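A protein record pairs a chain with a discrete description of its three-dimensional fold. The following entry can be read in just this way.
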Amino acid sequence: MGAGQTATAEITDTIWSEVVDELRVGVLLQDELGRVLVGNDVAAGLLGLSAAELVDGTRPDDWLASDDGGAPLPAPADLAGQVLRAGSQLAIPMLISRRGRRDVRLWVTYYPVSHRGRPRMLVVLRPVHTAVGHAQGLLDPLTGLPSRALLLDRLDQALIRARTHGTLATLVLLDVDGMTRINAEFGFQRGDALLTVLAGRLREGLRDDYAVARYGGNRFAVVAEHPGGSGEPIAARVLDLANRSVRLGGHRVGVRARVRWATSDGAVPVHSMITHLESRLARQRQAREV
């Protein structure tokens, strides 16, 4: 059928064929289960799919869509449910890989819409030629890790998957002590270098499917999904990576860090989980200062 392939012929109309097919961005229309009803040729090309694969849901064996950290994206039905329940747009970075290579970087925005009285999602795909998220303010400029805004979205998605699939989501908050002293003794540039080293250790030392983020200031966060058990081993691994000394300006500097973690089956709201851990970290800091 060429441009404007559709799963249902009734959706193809003059507006789509004459306007949407001419856009230089990818455009999809999805139903409430995340199934593609119609998409233009640009969308198929950006996703590395044929027109038939785009609408029938089949994907090549070596095809993978992940976030900018390499973690698999939520299922299309989960994403659709999140957007339609919230009633507001959602923008996420996406990497399309073939044969293990990161081939295409995209910025994908989901809009809740209605078509003939049914909830639908309008999806816009734009190629990104620089690091995903920097222009959108979603990556921390110092460490290159996802920022707090993107962390909250990833935690929300992890909790959705936990509720849907019966798994667990663990959030670990890491607080680095002594940054005021380090900045005063070695300078802010060295302090920034320490945070950059810690960011690299966490990203390289944890599983690829864990989301590691710069939570703000001297704090980092990790979101991990697992089928069962406790989040304690994950928190212990984070603490072990953070508490190793770092060489600054020719000096080996010891790092002291504190962690607090919480594990949920998805029944706890994002901000409740965050507030709980922030309160526990604050109480621990106060206890150590007494």
About this structure: Residues 6-12, 130-135 have pLDDT under 50 and may be disordered.
